[in-house]
């Protein structure tokens, strides 16, 4: 047993971190508290995801950062400048909308140059900046195309270019990949991350897709009911979730009532959380392993999901290697388990091997 991890989500007033600092953000909509006294601090050049289930308040938070929605209270600083009294068009931030919001009758170049035209920039300068940013997103060859004639992934990059051309200090993206198919999503998220790192631009992305958040972000703020449950790196969120909500939301978990004693699950009021990769299967007995029968096997490509029945519990395991068969006898041991009480992590236990 080890001590519970130190909290990284302590309430309090965050010091300005350069990029974005939010303090005490609060919003009531339709008589309900939607954003509940939220603090968040993003370092300059950092990419942070707001991740959480539908309705937890991610988009509402992003819209307040962008200036499309007025907070009831709280402050928003971008690179040390208080912006909450400014309209969206006067903030040093630019937003990429979920549906891209491109004008179908305008060329790609005109779409991208539009925010600069609004700022009354000269035609020559607009042309230079638009071409440079289209080059950055590898779309220069489409500058005279109209959005309906290019692919979804390309439209997404036009929307990104239109935000970047404004040279914002803060880039905001609302579910930027949700309109793309699975394969393209992986490619586009890598592109966005690469460009973000090249430019060193402070970025906040809203997503409900944990894999997307895990693969792109320096840090992830996991939101639940208008609050941040935990704000950590992807690795920490996965290895040391502070709450059962975070443990369940990030990755997979066997959730059982009871406690772990000498490798056996015994009755108890606590919740045990066991990652499927911490359920070890082997042909021969090993320390703390218990005889088990394979009940169900789900091939998942480079690994398989195996449901085994032991005397004390049914467990799900992720294993690689030769496909296992239902009915097969095996030995199942628990390498590591998390214990939650009243929703909070109280202990981690690892069995010796
Ligand atoms: N104008 C409004 N009036 C009343 N309630 C609202 C309004 N706008 C949003 N809400 C409510 O606020 C909550 C948070 O909405 P929000 O769009 O921020 O969630 P989200 O986390 O972005 O969800 P999703 O992933 O589904 O987009 C929801 O319960 C929503 O119904």
UniProtKB/TrEMBL annotation:
Gene3D superfamilies per record: P-loop containing nucleotide triphosphate hydrolases (3.40.50.300)
GO molecular function, one term: ATP binding
Taxonomic superkingdom: Bacteria
Domain ABC transporter: 20-250
PROSITE patterns linked to this entry: ABC_TRANSPORTER_1 (PS00211), ABC_TRANSPORTER_2 (PS50893)
InterPro entries linked: AAA+_ATPase (IPR003593), ABC_SmlMolc_Importer (IPR050093), ABC_transporter-like_ATP-bd (IPR003439), ABC_transporter-like_CS (IPR017871), Mo/tungstate-bd_C_term_dom (IPR008995), P-loop_NTPase (IPR027417), Transp-assoc_OB_typ2 (IPR013611)
Pfam families xref list: ABC_tran, TOBE_2
Key words, A-Z: ATP-binding, Nucleotide-binding, Transport
Keyword Transport among UniProt keywords: yes
Name of this protein: ABC transporter ATP-binding protein
Organism: Arthrobacter ramosus
Lineage: Bacteria, Bacillati, Actinomycetota, Actinomycetes, Micrococcales
């Amino acid at each position: 047993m080890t001590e519970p991890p130190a909290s990284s989500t302590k309430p309090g007033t965050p010091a300005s971190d350069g990029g974005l600092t939010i303090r005490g953000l609060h919003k009531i909509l339709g008589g309900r508290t939607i954003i509940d006294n939220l603090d968040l601090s993003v370092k300059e050049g950092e990419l942070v995801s707001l991740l959480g289930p539908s309705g937890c308040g991610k988009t509402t938070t992003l819209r307040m950062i962008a200036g499309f929605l007025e907070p009831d209270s709280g402050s928003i600083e971008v690179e040390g400048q208080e912006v909450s009294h400014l309209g969206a068009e006067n903030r040093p931030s630019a937003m990429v909308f979920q549906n891209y919001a491109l004008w179908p009758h305008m060329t790609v170049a005109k779409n991208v140059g539009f925010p600069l035209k609004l700022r009354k920039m000269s035609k020559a300068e607009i042309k230079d900046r638009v071409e440079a940013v289209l080059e950055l997103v590898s779309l220069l060859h489409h500058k005279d195309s109209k959005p309906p004639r290019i692919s979804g992934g390309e439209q997404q990059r036009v929307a990104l270019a239109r935000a970047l051309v404004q040279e914002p200090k803060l880039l905001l993206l609302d579910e930027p990949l949700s309109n793309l198919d699975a394969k393209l999503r992986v490619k586009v998220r890598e592109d966005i991350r690469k460009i973000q790192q090249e430019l060193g631009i402070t970025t906040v992305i809203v997503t409900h897709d944990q894999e997307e958040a895990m693969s792109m972000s320096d840090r992830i703020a996991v939101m639940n009911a208008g609050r941040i449950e935990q704000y950590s790196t992807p690795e920490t969120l996965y290895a040391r979730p502070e709450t059962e909500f975070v443990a369940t939301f990030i990755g997979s978990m066997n959730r059982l009532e009871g406690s772990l004693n000498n490798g056996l699950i015994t009755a108890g009021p606590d919740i045990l959380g066991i990652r499927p990769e911490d359920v070890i299967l082997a042909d021969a007995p090993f320390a703390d392993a218990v005889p088990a029968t394979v009940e169900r096997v789900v091939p998942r490509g480079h690994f398989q999901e195996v449901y085994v029945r032991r005397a004390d519990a049914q467990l799900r395991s992720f294993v690689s290697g030769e496909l296992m068969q239902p009915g097969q006898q095996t030995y199942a041991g628990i390498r590591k388990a998390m214990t939650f009480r009243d929703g909070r992590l109280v202990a981690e236990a690892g069995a010796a091997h």
